């Protein structure tokens, strides 16, 4: 019972931090993120699609594969991707007309919020799925390092967004991604997450 309550609390707090970081700090300055959230942000900037719904739609084929071939990965990440996506779209209605902070501060704080949110969830083996899940499945089937695959997917999302953002926004996005990775690494290190397959999720 206590473990179940702890799971729910960590899931909600982690997803809340991620959704607030994206809506209150990333979107205000047209910033990108790595992985599947980056793709969701690109779709939002170009076509005004909801970020969370885009994440869910893109994740569907990945989760179909996971259901048939990597069932444990499916269960560990399903709640994370659904709750985080729904929260991202819910809090989008509260995005302030005027940014709360300056661009550099927003990139750092937004990135740290995403990293802390992902990190505390990862301590309970909750993943936000997406490209992280795909990387885990590829790694399980091949000899490729899952960390390298995750970085590759993250870079691919940022590179895909280059045509729609300015040079300044790319620099700020890079800072935000670094801040996310830093916070996630610190949280998971402090929490002792050191299993060979438990790499910090990058919100892909």
Keyphrases for this structure?
single chain, 204 residues, mainly alpha, 8 helices, 0% strand, globular, transmembrane helix, UPF0750_membrane
Describe what you observe in this structure.
By secondary structure, the chain is an all-alpha fold. The chain has one domain (2-191). Helix content is 73%, strand content 0%. The protein contains 8 helices and no strands. The protein has helices at 2-26, 35-47, 51-69, 71-91, 103-122, 131-141, 146-160, 167-191. Helix 3 (51-69) runs antiparallel to helix 4 and helix 5 (103-122) packs parallel to helix 8 (167-191). The radius of gyration is 16 Å and the shape is globular. The two termini are 30 Å apart. It is found in: Cell membrane. Pfam families: YitT_membrane (PF02588). Its main location: membrane.
Going by helix content, strand content and strand pairing, the class is: mainly alpha
Estimated radius of gyration: 16 Å
Question: What's the oligomerization state?
Answer: single chain
User: Helix fraction?
Assistant: over 70%
Basic shape: globular
| Spans of at least 5 consecutive residues with low confidence | 193-202
Report how far the terminal alpha carbons are from each other: 30 Å
What's the total count of β strands?
0
The pLDDT mean sits at 85
Listing every helix as H and every strand as E from the N terminus to the C terminus, the arrangement reads HHHHHHHH
Strand composition percent: under 5%
The main sheet comes to:
none
């Amino acid at each position: 019972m206590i473990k179940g309550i702890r799971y729910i609390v960590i899931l909600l707090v982690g997803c809340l931090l991620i959704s607030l970081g994206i809506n209150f700090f990333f979107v205000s300055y047209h910033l990108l993120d790595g992985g599947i959230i980056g793709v969701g942000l690109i779709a939002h900037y170009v076509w005004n699609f909801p970020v969370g719904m885009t994440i869910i739609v893109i994740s569907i084929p990945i989760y179909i594969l996971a259901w048939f071939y990597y069932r444990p990965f499916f269960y560990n990440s399903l709640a994370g991707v659904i709750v985080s996506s729904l929260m991202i779209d819910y809090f989008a209605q509260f995005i302030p007309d005027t940014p709360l902070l300056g661009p550099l501060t927003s990139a750092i704080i937004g990135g740290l919020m995403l990293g802390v949110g992902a990190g505390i969830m990862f301590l309970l083996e909750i993943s936000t799925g997406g490209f992280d899940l795909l990387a885990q499945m590829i790694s399980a089937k091949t000899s490729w390092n899952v960390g390298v695959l995750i970085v590759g997917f993250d870079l691919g999302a940022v590179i895909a967004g280059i045509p729609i953002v300015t040079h300044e926004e790319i620099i700020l996005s890079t800072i935000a991604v670094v801040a996310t990775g830093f916070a996630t690494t610190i949280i998971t290190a402090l929490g002792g997450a050191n299993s060979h397959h438990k790499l910090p999720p990058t919100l892909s």
